[in-house]
Amino acid sequence: MLIIPAIDLQNGEAVRLLKGDYAKKTVYSHDPAGLAKNFEKMGAKYLHVVDLDGAKSGGTANIETIRKIRGSISIPFQIGGGIRNAETVSLYLDEVKADRVILGTVAARNPDFVREMLEKYPPERIAVGVDVRNGRVATAGWLEDSGLDYLAFIERLKGFGAQYIVATDISRDGTLTSPNWAMYEQIKGINVIVSGGVASEADLEKSAGYYGVIVGKAFYEGKVDLEKCLKKE
After folding, report:
1. Domains and CATH numbers, the chain
2. Which active-site residues does the annotation give?
3. Could you tell me if residue 170 is left (phi over 0), alpha (psi between -120 and 50 degrees) or otherwise beta?
């Protein structure tokens, strides 16, 4: 199980939102590349980076910051937010040299695009973000409801050969109320990265049965000793 520190980017800063609400933002660092380097020094083996501006409206608003993150670390990282066409996938994987992209909105709107990317790239380089609100998949930076049942959506992704998902219960994200374990128990047959609500080291221990767990606010607010947990990983 990978413990994956999160860096969410908005306007070139590392921030966290509450339940995906762009109006409820806390800035944690003006130097995301330095933050990434510190995570590597602490022992992180993988990082999770999200372009929140891109997630909301598409595009690569934080591309220069993401390039700086890549240049500051040697460990792999995955990038999500605003990746809605083949050109952006290629930009991140082939030019920026990110190790994995996370397809979110485009996967819900055009599932066949996931199939196309899985035919072009190895499965470990393509993940799908399954962002859940009230049992349905949310899109566009969590601002829109796709109407898709999340479990049926995941089954379709598996049929395409997808092997990795980042699954988030939006109602738990940034709340420090623990992940929605009942939701994760329903997801079978695919590598799941737990995201949203991690509040304690006990939550990290409970994530041991999954491929990975993303740690964001719990670290920034001092709720977990991340360096200690990474050494135990």
Report:
1. 2-232 (3.20.20.70)
2. 8, 131
3. alpha
